[in-house]
Design brief:
alpha+beta, Immunoglobulin-like, four-stranded antiparallel β-sheet, three-stranded antiparallel β-sheet, about 30% strand, elongated
Length: about 200
């Protein structure tokens, strides 16, 4: 199944779900039955990892069971940070409170999502800017890179575009030069991180 690693839990990491299926229905998670109304820690199931839970929450069986009203999360302390507001709200609505949003008190950076790039879409311009200077390097324990989408397709730095600092070296990245020419109907959106020090 793709989750064949098992080490007995040493730390109190949990992901507990409750069977709330209608009509007293018994359900299964990871081939393990959960009686109606009962709570099960999915991380206590052999071979189930945090990575598997993360994946199935957004794209798999756990997502389907939550949307169908069969389970709700009653306790979780695994890291589930989401930069997409739709996914983050889904997790919060599912009952997950901890680990969805990093504590702003501890951060010296902020996330900017879905920001439209500034520049003429006239069929000849290839130079665009962001409204903020963004981080595109290691910052503390993190390695941040701008994420640019053209009509929904993720672009690759140094293949589809290059970045630069319009005010000179050390002033902060804020300029994107595309290696192709977008059209008037192009949509250019960026997600990036800014410093708040």
């Amino acid at each position: 199944m793709g989750y064949r690693t098992w080490v007995k839990k040493q730390c109190p990491v949990v992901f507990k779900v409750q069977n709330i299926a209608p009509h007293g229905k018994r359900i299964k998670c990871f081939l393990t039955p959960i009686a109606n109304g009962m709570v099960r820690d999915l991380l206590a199931i052999e071979n189930v990892s945090e990575d598997v839970i993360r994946h199935l929450l957004l794209k798999g069986a756990l997502n389907i069971k939550i949307r169908a009203g069969e389970i709700r999360v009653v306790e979780s302390n695994i890291e589930l940070y989401q930069f997409d507001e739709c996914h983050r709200q889904f997790l919060i609505d599912a009952g997950i409170i901890t680990g969805v949003t990093p504590s702003a008190v501890d951060l010296n950076f902020a996330f900017k999502e879905g920001i439209a790039l500034i520049g003429l879409l006239d069929g000849s311009n290839r130079v665009f800017t962001t409204p903020d200077s963004f981080i595109n390097r290691a910052h503390g324990d993190n390695d941040f890179k701008i994420n640019i989408r053209h009509n929904g397709r993720v672009l690759v730095e140094d293949i589809d575009y290059t970045i630069s600092e319009s005010g000179g070296i050390g002033t902060g990245y804020d300029t994107i030069t595309l290696k192709f020419t977008p059209t008037e109907r192009s949509i250019l959106i960026a997600d990036y991180v800014i410093s708040v020090e």
